[in-house]
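Progress against Task 2.4 (sequence-to-structure conversion) is shown through the following example record, which the project officer requested during the mid-term review.
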Amino acid sequence: MSIAAEINFSELSNKPADSVRKLQAAPNQTLLVHRRGDEEDLVLTTARRAEEVREVVSFTTSLFVALMQHSEQARETIAELTPTVFPWVRFLPPEDRAHFVVELVEILEASNSLGTPAPVIQLITEWKHTAEVWADPHLVEMFTRDRSLDDDDEDVDEVPERGDTTA
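Structure tokens generated for the chain above:
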């Protein structure tokens, strides 16, 4: 994202009117607000600009989902292009690559209806971690071997349910 105007957080708090004028004069109605130390910088924009961005993302997502749902050719093209956008999918087995694309389209549609990108980011992160496992032969062997054939008497404890503190 290209942000033309930048200010320090102290400038925003000490000279708010000047900061607002700078925001309004920025070509994209956005300011990058630098914070001190390791604190994450902020992005300040107008409500109108934020709504415009949301509308564009929503429209683009809806169009993409509709194409994927109604066009075999679009699905084939997206499947071919996915490794260009997400190079790590090359480590996934072919059936997992296809499952990733289907799940991505479903989550894009659901996330768009909520107005939040968080589930999409979560899905991509999870699939990327899956690809990391497939990329490591040691991990593949560890996760895919049949434990019932192991000769050792290693006793593996059950994994407690989420929130269970009795373990």
